[in-house]
Amino acid sequence: LPAGAQTVMVTADRMLDVQAGRYLEKPALLVRDGRIVEVGTQGQLAAPADTEIVNLAGLTILPGLIDMHVHLTGRHDMHGFRRLEQSPVDEAINGVVHAERTLKAGFTTARNVGAGGYADVALKKAIDQGRVPGPRLWVSGPSIGATGGHCDNNLLPPRFQAKGDGVADGPWGVTQKVRENHKYGATLVKVCATGGVMSKGTAVGAQQLSDEELRAIVEEAKRLGLRTAAHAHGVNGVKAAIRAGFDTIEHASFIDDEGLRLAKERGTWLSMDIYNTEYILGEGEKAGILPESLEKERLTGRIQRENFGRAVKAGVNIVFGSDAGIYPHGENAKQFSRMVKFGMTPLQAIQAATVNAAKALGAEEEVGALAVGRYADILAVKGDPLADISVLERAEAVVKGGVRVK
Ligand code: ARG
Question: CATH no. for residue 51?
Answer without folding.
Answer: 2.30.40.10
